[in-house]
Write a structure and sequence with these properties.
Layout lengths: L1 H39 L11 H26 L2
Helix pairs in contact: 1-2
């Protein structure tokens, strides 16, 4: 019985972890990626109604830009 309960809570934990990661990538990644894309393309990209593929691409651009920003802070803080 204990194994069933442990397996249930592991599955529940994995579900909530996946949902949290998806929300972070979607909301924080998309908003920061949208700003980065608008700045670097001088307002041409992304369009007002992006497709799902463009939303995913913009989200990953945002996550990568946040990671690079945090890496730059770490590098320049060590000087």
């Amino acid at each position: 019985m204990e194994e069933v309960i442990v397996a249930y809570f592991r599955a529940l934990n994995a579900f909530f972890r996946y949902m949290l990661q998806s929300l972070v990538i979607e909301f924080i990644g998309y908003s920061s990626g949208w700003i980065v894309c608008k700045v670097f393309t001088l307002g041409r990209f992304p369009s007002l109604l992006p497709t799902e593929k463009e939303r995913t691409r913009i989200s990953y651009i945002g996550v990568i830009s946040i990671a690079l920003f945090l890496l730059a802070i770490g590098v320049f803080n060590s000087f």
